[in-house]
Amino acid sequence: MNKIELIQSNYENAKSVFSDLGIDTSKVLKKLNEISISMHCWQGDDVAGFENPDGPLTGGIQATGDHPGKATTPSQLRADIDYAMALIPGKLRLNLHAIYLESDEHVERDQIKPSHFSNWVEWAKAKSIGLDFNPSCFSHSLSADNMTLTHPDEKIRNFWIDHCIASRKVSEYFGKELGTPSVMNIWVPDGFKDVPADRLAPRKRLLDSLDKIIAEPISKKYHKDAVESKLFGIGTEAYTAGSNEFYLGYAASRNIMLCMDAGHFHPTEVISDKISSASLYVDEMLLHVSRPIRWDSDHVVMLDDETQAIANEIIRHDLVDRVNIGLDFFDASINRIAAWVIGTRNMRKALLRALLEPTAQLKAAELQGDFTTRLALMEESKSLPWTAVWDYYCLEQKVPVGASWLTQVKNYEEEVLFKR
User: Fold this and answer.
1) Does the N-terminal or the C-terminal CB of the chain have fewer CB atoms within 10 Å?
2) In the predicted model, what is the mean pLDDT of residues 191-214?
3) Whole-angstrom Cα distance, residue 213 to residue 85?
4) Which member of 228, 284, 357, 391 is catalytic?
5) Do the domain assignments include residue 30?
6) Cα–Cα distance between 197 and 155 in angstroms, integer?
7) 52 pLDDT above the threshold of 90
8) pLDDT above 90 (res 6)
9) 212 and 305, same structural domain?
10) The one catalytic residue among 132, 298, 306, 413
11) What's the rounded Cα separation, in Å, for the pair 167 and 175?
12) What is the mean predicted confidence (pLDDT) over 372-389?
């Protein structure tokens, strides 16, 4: 029996096991394949962008490591993303920051236009994928003190308001050109390194700034607004204006999306526990799936308990159409393409495991107060042959099975990355 026959045989056996639990693996794989995961462009170049690629990172952002071969031009970055995407099964999108614009001359951020991203749109059209967008409110002379939309200087504050307004037009352009709405996420680093005397005034300014940014109605057919909280950052350890409580209230009251990043909370907090609560108050959510380690939020996603719990919450509560899944990590200590592949494949593996869970039986047992059955089924489901289904899915999608993709990445590293 050759490798392909073995994969198919293992899948048929697994299919029978899941069928006994009332789970149709063919339907599961069809649903899995349609769930979009938005990969983030900034893993490929350590959040440098093309506005000022040699400039320092500020705003609580730090990429550590110096693995050789990072992308330094738009064409290199797109080539690297192409290579990574070819190794990942399922529906993908790409998430861009404003600093990834392309222009022959310097463009201030409050002056960015859709034309500065036309190459990205043409590339996305060729790949039949959607694009998402983010204003870049960091790594700029006017964000050096970790204040942007909350800045007490009205002139500086208006600069960032205008940047976000211009970014919405870019996002709308993506949606119109690509036929799928672009999610635009607003995150700002605003806060204080030490304990503030006034916690309210910056939040009042933030609320006013956001209201001005979203004042112009844009059809959700093309563009969707999201706001992202953060507990702390480098240089804002004591206070951030954009807390989770602030943004949950803002998103719910303005009928926009709430973004929750897995690394933006207390070390013992998890976003999986927040998804169901937020779903009661906001129509749609954006997740930035990452892996926090102590104070750092941006490690490559593992198939760990929290990643699995996030996927379980989405699937158990039928929130696929209300939760937008994005990734947000930037590890420069390892091959950057491998980081994309590992993290994105892990997110889809978690979704597959969630789809293969006997959710109906679990909920029925819980409703009947049969917590013995609930616990037993939860534990037994962990050892169900989901890996056989995953291998078959990869085979079906014509991407490498198992770790065989690593050989291809290593070859690309030798032939392309090390020669840059």
Assistant:
1) N
2) 97
3) 33
4) 228
5) no
6) 23
7) no
8) yes
9) yes
10) 298
11) 13
12) 97
Nearest to 337 by CA among 412, 419, 287: 412
Query: Is residue 52 one of the residues assigned to a domain?
Result: yes
Respond yes or no: is residue 296 known to be catalytic.
yes
Read off the CATH number of the domain in which 236 is found: 3.20.20.150
Q: Is residue 97 among the annotated active site residues?
A: no
Residue 190 belongs to some domain of the structure: yes
Q: Which of 274, 288, 299, 349 is catalytic?
A: 288
Determine which one of 328, 331, 357, 413 is catalytic.
328
Rounded to whole angstroms, how far apart are CA atoms 379 and 190? 43
The DSSP bridge pattern shows strands 182-186 and 92-97 to be unpaired
Low-confidence winner among 55-64, 288-297, 361-370, 399-408 (lowest mean pLDDT): 55-64
* pLDDT at position 248: 98
How many residues are given for the chain?
420
Catalytic residue among 91, 296, 317, 410: 296
Of 46, 172, 261, 284, which one is the catalytic site residue?
Answer: 261
Same domain, 332 and 419: no
User: Choosing from 151, 230, 274, 349, which is the catalytic residue?
Assistant: 230
What is the domain extent for residue 9? 1-23+358-420
Question: At 168, which helix (H) or strand (E)?
Answer: helix 154-178
**Residue 280 domain-assigned?**
yes
Residue 145 annotated among the catalytic residues of the structure: no
- Same domain, yes or no, for 298 and 161? yes
Respond yes or no: is residue 46 known to be catalytic. Answer: no
pTM score over 0.85: yes
Single out the catalytic residue among 223, 264, 274, 299: 264
> For residue 261, what is the enclosing H or E element?
strand 257-261
Both tokens of 118, joined, read 């036309």
Active-site residue flag, 264:
yes
Instruction: Give mean pLDDT, residues 301-330.
Output: 97
183 and 240 co-located in one domain: yes
62 — pLDDT class (breaks 50, 70, 90): confident
**Cβ pair 27, 408 in contact under 8 A:** no
In this structure, the dihedral spanned by the alpha carbons of residues 14, 15, 20 and 26, taken in order and rounded to 10 degrees, is: 150
The residue-averaged pLDDT of 113-127 equals: 98
Reported as a single tens digit per residue, the pLDDT across 229-239 is 999 888 899 99
Statement to judge: residues 267 and 300 lie in one domain: yes
| Residue 230 annotated among the catalytic residues of the structure | yes
Query: What angle separates helix 3-20 from helix 25-34, to the nearest 10 degrees?
Result: 110
